[in-house]
């Protein structure tokens, strides 16, 4: 696709601005997925080039352009001939080879004449003015056949091969960075198989098979080079793309496994091995070969090798580590962080303390014990283990005196050397005993820092691992402990734990039940272990039976119960809860009323009915107790199962109704405050918030827009709650304030909620509120036919009331409804009426929103100059009024339209600005703008900004941005953006410009 969508720039920097043309095809555009067709700009080819200029692509499908415009390469046989010539890379292809490839070994008598005729047609596709007897400059006779003469920059395959040549040359010359970068650029350019649109019979010909084998060989060489020189992370994504097309190539799959290991994703490496092994058995009837098996052994053998030979200890050498936990799943991110800390134990640090914190049942002890076993041979003087019983249900935690006596006895010391020996004296003897020794000390289930502090050695080379539900802030502050938060398992890690416990056959027998178990357990290892034990103890019990009746939150905890209190989720949570002060316990219960997933400081204050300052204090105490996680400043996450437990406590205390009433008032007034920042008064009148409610307030659009993005899920869940409480007017007011004006950000699937509220509000006698709900219903139901009826009913009410802003909004919605239907004339008419009414209101934000829709409509109806003018006016308003939520869309529209019209300087300027100034909760628009920057700057001859656009695009899609780009522009357009950036990146690399 990328050559089909390229405005060609030739000999950039050497022959002026170069030639440029625009797409002749329709393609996805804008957040509403409007289809737009652009006209071709005048050919700007320098006068010294009398011939047409052609360029070709092979990766992802065969395509060609002449002077920047896509051309039809003709029927299938003609395309096969061209493919064989491109694959030859300028070498001659004999007539016999062409005939065999086109007719698969059964050519007709006229085959040679047909080939000559196809060659003639191809020549005139390349050079339309060519005389019938002329050969032209591209397709030349060569012996009995032909060869295709192209410059390196005229074919993605030629560029690919040149990049590979440069990579090998650089690596041979010792320039590792340049070599690996060239390899990775080639790998990205050729991430899709070549000639994918040709028939399978043609693809099986030796020369085209060789291209794919070449691609696999290059991917293998690139992957090995990247892994060997510490650049595996950059190679992982393109390597994965090539490996997916060659699932039975054991060498490539082994390389992919090593890349996963090198980037800390061992579980993914195991998955690659299992998938490859299964395919080899099912498709070829063979087991994995030695290379794949060796890579798998290396993957499983990860860990620390001893640096010192253990010496015979003069003193007792304790070896007290508990056995590893059954079914343990290695957490690559935490394991890497722990391994980084290990080296400090043998450096200049006097003592290294690693504190593992997290909620009950999260797997702190399992992780600590597993890691301790892996590194035990680094500590030749032994390993000490002590369970400090910090939160035992009987409340009898181990005192420092008892702990020191136990540790001293393990080291060969008498428990007491003097009748009145105090803790300080015991600690001094303990530190003396450890002096000069390398000992690993695991202190499990600590209550707080004060319990741990006397148990710390002072000897260089000792490592202390502490696990606790407490955050151990004092230990971090005063002793310099390295704190690691142990969070929930990922879905893949949860699945692996169940497989480890139950075996692959039983765990995966019912995939739906397995997914349900993973959802119910919410990444809590204890919960997963309870489910696994229940199934393991009853061979006749299917996995689905454990979660078959789970629906209500309390039922989730029932499904995870156990007769042993130490292995019961509810009991384990209760140990932490009972240690809380009464006011903190009340706050924890109140949080059970919040629908989640994230709770703000102000929402917590409102639900609990306390002030903001006190709310912060209590939430901090819950974070310290690891019953809550502070994901961002003032933003808190409550684990799903802890939320269920808090809800049970809330119901037992009979506090839920009052907490939910305060929750509804909090979101009602917060949403209306956010709405008001857009210079649009919220519809309807509501009273002042109750004194015990602390709604959020906003002084400008950006923080209000950010609030909408963060709180959307919780806000709509609260709307459902208001409906359940029969608070229909409050529910209606929240719906009307639930999104920024013009943001089109009401969640999909909410039409029924709005229609239910609309039925209730119809009896309130408030026409403007009814009209706004009708408009909102039409917006959400688009593009369904019934949306038109709701919008026209709303327009009629607004017209009758003389409400200009409401009319402008409805007309904008009608324009947006017309765009995906291809009715650009109607969209243009509605858009112009919306802008006219918005101007009359004098509200600049409303005008900017209407102009954005008009811009899309005019571009869609091919009124490019008028569309660009509307876009530029709206962009100026968005800047002047600080409408950050609109800047990103204006930047994308104006930059791409200017680029299509050949205004490269303006396109680059706007795209560059948009990446800096535009904000959006999705990376999709930013990906599109970065691609536009790369293309437009390349056409302009600005290599620096072209490279920056490529780099920003690559960075964005590496962080889930490609999925968001697909959601923003559609799969076809998203692939086009990515292919274009790959093409520009390859051209820059060949010119010596690298990231």
Description:
The chain has 995 residues and is of the alpha/beta class. The protein is 58% helix and 7% strand. The protein has 43 helices and 15 strands. The strands form 5 sheets. A 5-stranded parallel β-sheet has the order 9-10-11-8-12, with helices on both faces. Strands 3-4-5 form a 3-stranded antiparallel β-sheet, with no helix packed on it. A 3-stranded antiparallel β-sheet has the order 13-15-14. β14 (629-632) and β15 form a beta hairpin. α7 packs antiparallel against α8, α7 (206-228) runs parallel beside α9 and α37 runs parallel beside α39 (884-900). It is globular.
Topology:
Layout: E1 26-29, E2 34-37, E3 54-57, E4 63-66, E5 69-70, H1 76-87, H2 95-103, H3 111-126, E6 139-142, E7 145-148, H4 156-172, H5 176-189, H6 200-203, H7 206-228, H8 232-245, H9 250-262, H10 266-284, H11 290-300, H12 332-342, E8 351-357, H13 364-375, E9 383-387, H14 400-410, H15 423-434, E10 440-446, H16 449-452, E11 462-468, H17 473-479, E12 482-485, H18 491-502, H19 504-507, H20 511-521, H21 525-537, H22 543-547, H23 553-559, H24 569-578, H25 582-591, E13 598-600, H26 601-608, H27 612-624, E14 629-632, E15 635-637, H28 640-652, H29 656-676, H30 701-724, H31 728-736, H32 751-761, H33 767-781, H34 786-801, H35 804-818, H36 824-841, H37 844-860, H38 864-880, H39 884-900, H40 904-917, H41 924-940, H42 943-969, H43 971-990
Parallel strand pairs: 8-11, 8-12, 9-10, 10-11
Antiparallel strand pairs: 1-2, 3-4, 4-5, 6-7, 13-15, 14-15
């Amino acid at each position: 696709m990328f050559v089909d969508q390229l405005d060609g720039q030739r000999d950039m920097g050497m022959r002026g601005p170069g030639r440029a043309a625009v797409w002749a095809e329709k393609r996805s555009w804008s957040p509403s997925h409007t289809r737009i067709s652009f006209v071709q700009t005048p050919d700007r080819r320098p006068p010294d080039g009398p011939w047409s200029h052609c360029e070709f692509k092979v990766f992802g499908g065969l395509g060609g352009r002449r002077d920047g415009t896509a051309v039809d390469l003709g029927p299938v046989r003609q395309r096969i001939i061209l493919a064989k010539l491109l694959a030859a890379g300028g070498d001659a292809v004999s007539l016999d080879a062409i005939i065999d490839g086109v007719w698969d070994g059964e050519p007709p008598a006229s085959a040679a004449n047909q080939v000559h005729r196809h060659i003639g047609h191809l020549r005139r596709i390349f050079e339309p003015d060519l005389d019938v007897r002329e050969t032209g400059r591209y397709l030349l006779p060569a012996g009995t056949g032909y060869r295709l003469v192209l410059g390196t920059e005229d074919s993605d395959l030629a560029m690919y091969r040149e990049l590979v040549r440069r990579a090998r040359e650089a690596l041979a010359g010792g320039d590792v960075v340049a070599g690996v970068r060239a390899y990775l650029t080639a790998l990205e350019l050729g991430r899709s198989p070549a000639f994918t649109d040709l028939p399978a019979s043609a693809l099986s010909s030796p020369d085209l098979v060789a291209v794919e084998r070449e691609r696999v060989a290059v991917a293998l060489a690139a992957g090995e080079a990247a892994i060997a020189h510490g650049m595996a992370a950059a190679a992982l994504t393109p390597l994965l793309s090539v490996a997916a097309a060659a699932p039975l190539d054991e060498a490539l799959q082994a390389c992919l496994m090593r890349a996963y290991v090198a980037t800390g994703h061992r579980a993914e490496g195991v998955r690659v091995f299992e998938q490859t092994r299964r395919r080899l058995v099912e498709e070829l009837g063979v087991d994995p070969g030695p290379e794949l098996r060796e890579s798998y052994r290396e993957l499983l053998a990860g860990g620390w090798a001893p640096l010192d030979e253990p010496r015979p200890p003069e003193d007792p050498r304790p070896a007290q580590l508990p056995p590893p936990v059954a079914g343990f799943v290695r957490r690559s991110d935490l394991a890497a962080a722990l391994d980084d800390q290990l080296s400090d134990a043998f450096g200049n640090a006097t003592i290294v303390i690693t504190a593992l914190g997290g909620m009950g049942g999260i797997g702190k002890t399992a992780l600590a014990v597993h890691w301790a076993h892996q590194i035990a041979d680094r500590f030749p003087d032994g390993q000490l283990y002590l369970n400090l019983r910090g939160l035992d249900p009987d409340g009898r935690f181990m005192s420092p005196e008892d702990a020191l006596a136990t540790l001293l006895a393990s080291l060969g010391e008498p428990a007491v050397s003097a009748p009145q020996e105090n803790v300080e004296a015991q600690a001094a003897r303990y530190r003396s005993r450890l002096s000069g020794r390398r000992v690993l000390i695991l202190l499990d289930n600590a209550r707080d820092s004060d319990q741990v502090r006397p148990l710390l050695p002072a000897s260089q080379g000792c490592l202390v691992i502490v696990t606790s539900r407490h955050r151990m802030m004092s230990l971090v502050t005063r002793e310099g402990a390295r704190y690691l938060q142990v969070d929930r398992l990922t879905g893949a890690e949860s699945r692996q734990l169940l497989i480890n416990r139950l075996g692959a056959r039983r765990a995966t027998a019912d995939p739906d039940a397995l997914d349900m178990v993973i959802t119910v357990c919410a990444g809590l290892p204890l919960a997963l272990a309870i489910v696994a034990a229940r199934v393991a103890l009853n061979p006749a019990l299917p996995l689905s039976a454990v979660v078959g009746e789970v629906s209500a939150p309390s039922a989730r905890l029932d499904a995870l119960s156990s007769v042993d209190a130490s292995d019961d989720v509810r009991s384990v949570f209760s140990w932490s809860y009972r240690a809380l002060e009464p006011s903190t316990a009340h706050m924890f219960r109140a949080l059970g009323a919040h629908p989640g997933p994230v709770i703000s400081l102000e929402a917590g204050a409102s639900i609990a009915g306390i002030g903001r300052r006190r709310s912060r204090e209590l939430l901090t105490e819950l974070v310290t107790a690891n019953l809550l996680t502070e994901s961002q400043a003032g933003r808190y996450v409550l684990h799903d199962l802890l939320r269920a437990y808090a809800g049970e406590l809330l119901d037992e205390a009979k506090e839920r109704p009052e907490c939910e009433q305060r929750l509804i008032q909090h979101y009602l007034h917060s949403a209306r405050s956010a709405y008001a920042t857009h210079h649009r008064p919220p519809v309807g009148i509501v009273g002042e918030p109750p004194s015990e409610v602390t709604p959020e307030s906003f002084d400008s659009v950006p923080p209000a827009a950010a609030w909408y993005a963060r709180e959307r899920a919780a806000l709509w869940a609260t709307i459902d709650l208001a409906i359940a409480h029969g608070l229909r007017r409050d529910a209606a007011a929240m719906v009307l304030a639930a999104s920024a004006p013009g943001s089109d950000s009401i969640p999909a699937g909410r039409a029924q909620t709005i229609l239910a509220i609309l039925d209730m509000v119809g009896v309130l006698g408030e026409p403007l509120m009814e009209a706004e709900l009708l408009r909102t219903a039409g917006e959400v139901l688009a593009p369904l036919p019934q949306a038109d009826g709701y919008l026209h009913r709303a327009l009629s009410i607004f017209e009758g009331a003389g409400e200009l802003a409401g009319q402008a909004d409805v007309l904008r919605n009608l324009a947006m409804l017309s765009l995906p239907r291809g009715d650009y004339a109607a969209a243009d008419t509605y858009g112009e009426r919306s802008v006219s009414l918005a101007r009359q209101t004098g509200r600049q934000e409303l005008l900017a929103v209407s102009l954005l829709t008009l811009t899309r409509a005019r571009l869609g109806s091919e009124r490019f100059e008028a569309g660009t003018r509307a876009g530029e006016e709206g962009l100026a308003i968005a800047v002047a009024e600080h409408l950050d939520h609109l800047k990103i869309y204006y930047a994308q529209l104006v930059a791409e339209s200017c680029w299509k019209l050949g205004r490269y300087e303006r396109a680059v300027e706007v795209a560059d600005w948009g990446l800096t100034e535009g904000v959006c909760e999705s990376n999709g628009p930013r990906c599109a703008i970065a691609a536009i920057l790369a293309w437009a700057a390349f056409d302009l001859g600005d290599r620096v900004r072209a490279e920056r656009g490529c780099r920003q695009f690559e960075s964005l899609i590496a962080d889930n941005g490609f999925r968001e780009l697909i959601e923003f522009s559609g799969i076809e357009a998203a692939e086009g953006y990515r292919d274009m950036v790959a093409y520009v990146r390859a051209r820059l690399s060949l010119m010596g410009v690298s990231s």
